Every structure is written in structure tokens, then in C-alpha cells.
């Protein structure tokens, strides 16, 4: 395929691509500045909260630049899903990592050179592969994107040594392309490492802030037994919502998952002690909404694009506030109201101190550095404990930790357990109906979350915070019934297309459909999140459901 690489696309071209592929008329805060930079040939670093649309900062340029945008990502297990999601949006994607069979790899590279793809996800370890280096030297690469860029820093949560070779790879290309580095959680020290170690040149730096207004934050001190009971009751009270429950050990993951299953919740477990196939099966079941809850260690989560996670419950104390906010931030990526609960005990604090004291350093790490690193971990744990035990606004604590100035009114944020006075007691009262269901039904599992069109749960739906494009509205019974019908339709279409339901349309887009009740294709195209590509694929089915009495 011959392509014209001489024309420089404009921000107007990018905005048109955004509408066509993703169904939005304008960029979110921060996105446009980053995209303008890379279109002009400049490096950029974007620090944006989870759900702010970091991937758009390289996906839209890939659609308009021509050639092959290379995206370096540590998320090997998710690359196939990411490529499928791009295909649904009408962008030609591919990936190159260790999961490809050796006989397939040359064909992928051949097709890429022939112009079959707009974008290729690459594991960082592949950048030193001689075959890939030879390929890259002959390809037209207009942009290199570094996803999860904090992995380059040993001070970050997910240090990946192979990220240290990205700068050398970029410099080895015949013509050095602009580089855009993207991350959701990075302290000032990690941000500086990203700039330096990735070799960014005079970059545009966009820090959009770390606030997630749609997230409700709560911290409750509960014994391990009580938090298992709390978690089961919460899941039972929110049967139409999907959630993640994090536990600190594999044993606790298995225990909590069993408790949820015994209570009648459709659940899967995920931890590093499971086989690769078992982990993949659990992850796919969760992403495809075939289970309601996934119980996992922190081995699960980075880069998970599932946008309709309505709650994250941490049963145990993470060792840093950065780690906690990264895990909690997997809720509500679509901007819809979601909840983040930290359930901790004094025993968790002792366990965290024990882990820090038990760290074994490599022999070449000098004693002074060992002492400095241990003291730093203790300081970070102190910040986490301060959050857990806080008697002041939780949101304010998080934002100050990341260096963001915050101005709160006299009543605080109005959306955390401290500011609202919420207590743990509500979900410690055992539901009579739940007990009867367990007694009568034994270990009967619940139906998949997307397959039920039942009455609305007592959930965050009633607390919906209107977005920029919508007036205040209440999820009354007819609206909620239609929303559930659209979810069932979405699940059916997603299964047919072999993609996760959120890839078809997000919950936020479904809510907008319910509110606007479009009757024609032109009206449906006006709904945020409905672009030309998805209108052609799914428009008729959704219009039929929306107009059916």
C-alpha cells in the first residue's frame, strides 16, 4: 500500500478522526495539547488520571499520520484485546510480542511494512530483537508512544528494566520520530525519571491532575472476618454491577472468592499462583462480563481497559498510596459514578512493616542505599496509613500526595466517607433475603451481570453526577429498565463480535441513549461515544431496541 507521508495532518484532521472512530466532537482536557505537539513533531509527556483517555493521545495520531505508530506497552496479555477494540473503532492495529508463534512473527512484520496497519503494540523486550530492529529500520515510523511510562523508573510501582532501552531504540531509527510518554500515576520524582530516561527532547508536558470526581472514596477499619462479610453483602446489594476485590495474599484471594461464591455471587479468582491458562480464563470472564466480581492480588490490573467497573474493594492495606490509587482508579473509567472502598485492620499495618523488613537486596546494593530505600518505603507506608486512618478529607489527602493543589469548601469534597460521615455498618447487617437465598439455593451462582434486566439495585445509579453534556436527571424505573435492556443487547452483540461489552459502547454512552431516546441514525450519531464506524455496525440494533415499546 502506497501512502503519502508528505502532508502534515492538522488538529482539525485529528478532531475529525476522533468523531469518526470514537464518536466525540471534542478532545478531553489535556488530550488536544498532547496531540497538537506530536502532530507538530514534538515529544510530549502526559500524566493523566485513569479514565482520562490517555490512549487517544496516540490512537488518533496513528489514524491520521500515516505509516506505523509503534506503541511500547508492558501489557502483553491485553494486546490482543486492545487490537480488537481498535478494529471495532475502525483503526488497523497489530501487536508483536512473545505470545506470537515464531512462524507468525515474520508475517506480521511483512504486513506492517506493506502498510496493513496504522499502529503496532510492542513489548519492550522486543525492541532488542534483531528481526524487529531490522524491520523498524525499514518502516516509516511517525510516532513512538510509551504506555505506562512510569515503568522506566525504579521509583515507580511497576519498574520494568527493558524500558531503559527505549531511548536507544528510538535514536537508532533512521529518522527519530516524536515520542509521547503516558502514565496515570507518577510522583514528581518518577515524572523526572520519565523525562530523563526516555530521552525526551524539549517535550510538551501535560499534567491533567489526579482528581477523579466520579469516584467515591471510603476507608473503614474492619477485622478480616468482618470485611469478608461486608464485601459479600455489598456484592449482593449491587447485583447488576461489576467490581474488583483486591486481597494482599493468594490465600486471602481464594478465601474471599469462596465466600462470595457461597453467597451466590458469580465470581472468579486471579493471582500469580494460578496457571497462565487459568488466569487468562478468569481475566476474560471478567472483561466479558461473564462474572460479576473478580478477586485478585495486585498481579491483576495494570492497563485493564474495562470501563464499566463500578466498584473496587481493597481487603487489606496496600504498601503505598500510589499503589492504592492505581488499584482504586480501575473503577469508573467511563466517568460514571463508582465507589472505592479500603477495608483495613491494625494487623495489616504489622504485615506491611514485616514485608519491608524482609526485603532482600542484591549483593551489589551498598548498605547506605539499602538503608535509604528501606526508610523511603517506611515513609510511603506512613502516607498509606495516614490515608486509612484519616479524619480529614480522603480526596484531599490523595491529591496532596501527588503534589496537586486543592481548594475544598468548608464541607470538604462531599464524596468521601470522612466528608459524608458514611460508616461501614450498612453492609454489616446481613440481608434476610440473601440468607434465605443461600439456605434455599445452596451454592447457586448468579447469572452473568449483563444477562439480567432486573429492577435496579440500590447502587450509585441514584447518585449519578451529570456530565458536561447532560442535564440533571434521575434514574427512574422506566429509564433503568431501558438501560438494562440495552446492556443485555450490548452483551449479545459483543459475544457475536468476540469483544468485551464495553468495547461496543460504554455504560456512559448507554445512559446517554436512554436519556436522549434517539429514533434515527442522525440522532443516534449525536450521542457521545457513537461514531460512524460503530453506527454502521450496531446502530440498527440499538435503534430497534430504543424504539421498541
Please report which band the strand proportion falls in: under 5%, 5-15%, 15-25%, 25-35%, 35-45% or over 45%. 5-15%
Report the CATH superfamily of the largest domain.
P-loop containing nucleotide triphosphate hydrolases
Distance between the termini: 48 Å
As a percent range, the share of helical residues equals: 40-55%
CATH topology term of the largest domain = Rossmann fold
How many distinct folded domains? Answer: 3
What gross morphology would you assign?
globular
* Strand numbers in spatial order across the main sheet: 3-4-2-5-6-1-7
List low-pLDDT spans.
432-442, 444-474
User: From the 3D coordinates, which CATH architecture of the largest domain would you assign?
Assistant: 3-Layer(aba) Sandwich
- Per DSSP, the total helix count is 22
Q: Count of DSSP E strands?
A: 13
Cα radius of gyration in angstroms: 23 Å
Question: How would you sum up this structure, described in words?
Answer:
With 549 residues, the chain is of the alpha/beta class. The chain folds into three domains: 11-207, 3-Layer(aba) Sandwich (Rossmann fold); 215-425, P-loop containing nucleotide triphosphate hydrolases (Rossmann fold); 466-547, HRDC domain (DNA polymerase, domain 1, Orthogonal Bundle), CATH 1.10.150.80. 43% of the residues lie in helices and 11% in strands. The protein is built from 22 helices and 13 strands. It has a seven-stranded parallel sheet with strand order 3-4-2-5-6-1-7, with helices on both faces. It has a six-stranded parallel sheet with strand order 8-13-12-9-11-10, with helices on both faces. Helix 5 packs parallel to helix 6.
Amino acid at each position: 500500500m502506497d501512502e503519502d507521508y508528505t502532508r502534515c495532518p492538522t488538529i482539525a484532521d485529528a478532531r475529525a478522526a476522533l468523531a469518526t472512530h470514537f464518536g466525540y466532537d471534542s478532545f478531553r482536557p489535556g488530550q488536544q495539547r498532547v496531540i497538537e505537539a506530536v502532530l507538530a513533531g514534538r515529544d510530549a509527556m502526559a500524566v493523566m488520571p485513569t479514565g482520562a483517555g490517555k490512549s487517544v493521545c496516540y490512537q488518533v495520531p496513528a489514524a491520521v499520520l500515516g505509516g506505523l505508530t509503534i506503541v511500547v506497552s508492558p501489557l502483553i496479555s491485553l494486546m490482543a484485546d486492545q487490537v480488537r477494540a481498535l478494529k471495532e473503532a475502525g483503526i488497523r492495529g497489530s501487536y508483536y510480542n512473545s505470545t506470537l508463534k515464531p512462524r507468525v512473527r515474520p508475517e506480521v512484520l511483512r504486513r506492517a511494512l506493506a502498510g496493513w496497519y496504522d499502529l503496532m503494540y510492542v513489548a519492550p523486550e522486543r525492541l532488542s530483537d534483531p528481526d524487529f530492529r531490522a524491520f523498524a529500520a525499514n518502516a516509516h515510523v511517525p510516532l513512538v508512544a510509551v504506555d505506562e511510562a512510569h515503568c522506566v523508573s525504579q521509583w515507580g510501582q511497576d519498574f520494568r528494566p527493558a524500558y531503559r532501552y527505549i531511548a536507544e531504540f528510538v535514536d537508532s531509527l533512521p529518522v527519530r520520530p516524536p515520542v509521547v510518554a503516558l502514565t496515570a500515576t507518577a510522583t514528581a520524582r518518577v515524572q523526572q525519571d520519565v523525562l530523563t530516561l526516555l530521552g525526551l527532547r524539549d517535550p510538551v508536558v501535560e499534567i491533567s491532575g489526579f482528581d477523579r470526581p466520579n469516584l467515591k472514596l471510603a476507608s473503614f477499619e474492619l477485622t478480616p472476618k468482618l470485611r469478608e462479610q461486608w464485601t459479600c453483602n455489598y456484592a449482593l446489594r449491587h447485583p447488576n454491577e461489576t467490581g474488583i476485590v483486591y486481597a494482599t495474599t493468594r490465600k486471602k484471594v481464594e478465601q474471599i472468592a469462596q465466600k462470595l461464591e457461597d453467597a451466590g455471587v458469580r465470581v472468579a479468582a486471579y493471582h500469580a499462583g494460578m496457571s497462565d491458562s487459568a488466569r487468562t480464563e478468569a481475566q476474560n470472564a471478567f472483561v466479558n462480563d461473564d462474572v460479576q466480581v473478580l478477586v485478585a492480588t495486585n498481579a491483576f490490573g495494570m492497563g485493564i481497559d474495562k470501563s464499566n467497573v463500578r466498584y473496587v474493594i481493597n481487603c487489606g492495606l496496600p504498601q503505598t498510596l500510589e499503589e492504592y490509587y492505581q488499584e482504586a482508579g480501575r473503577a469508573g473509567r467511563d466517568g460514571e459514578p463508582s465507589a472505592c472502598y479500603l477495608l483495613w485492620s491494625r494487623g495489616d499495618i504489622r504485615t506491611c512493616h514485616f514485608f519491608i523488613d524482609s526485603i532482600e537486596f542484591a549483593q551489589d546494593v551498598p548498605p547506605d542505599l539499602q538503608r535509604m530505600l528501606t526508610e523511603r518505603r517506611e515513609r510511603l507506608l506512613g502516607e498509606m496509613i495516614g490515608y486509612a486512618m484519616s479524619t480529614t478529607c480522603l480526596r484531599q489527602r490523595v491529591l496532596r500526595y501527588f503534589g496537586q493543589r486543592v481548594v475544598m469548601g468548608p464541607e470538604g469534597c462531599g464524596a468521601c466517607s470522612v466528608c459524608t460521615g458514611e460508616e461501614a455498618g450498612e453492609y454489616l447487617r446481613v440481608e434476610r433475603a440473601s440468607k434465605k437465598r443461600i439456605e434455599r439455593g445452596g451454592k447457586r451462582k448468579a447469572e452473568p451481570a449483563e444477562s439480567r434486566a432486573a429492577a435496579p439495585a440500590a447502587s450509585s445509579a441514584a447518585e449519578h453526577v451529570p456530565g458536561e453534556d447532560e442535564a440533571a436527571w434521575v434514574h427512574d424505573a422506566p429509564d433503568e429498565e431501558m438501560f438494562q435492556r440495552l446492556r443485555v443487547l450490548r452483551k449479545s452483540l459483543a459475544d457475536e463480535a468476540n469483544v468485551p461489552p464495553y468495547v461496543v459502547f460504554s455504560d456512559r454512552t448507554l445512559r446517554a441513549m436512554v436519556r436522549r431516546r434517539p429514533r434515527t441514525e442522525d440522532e443516534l450519531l449525536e450521542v457521545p461515544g457513537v461514531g460512524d464506524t460503530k453506527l454502521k455496525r450496531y446502530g440498527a440494533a440499538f435503534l430497534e431496541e430504543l424504539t421498541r415499546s
